Amino acid sequence: MVLYATNELIPSSEMAKKFGSYLGQIKEHSVEKLAILKNNKVEAVMISKDEYEKMSEALKFVEANEMLKSISLGLDDVKSGRVQPIEKLWDEL
Question: What's the mean pLDDT in 43-71?
Answer without folding.
Answer: 97
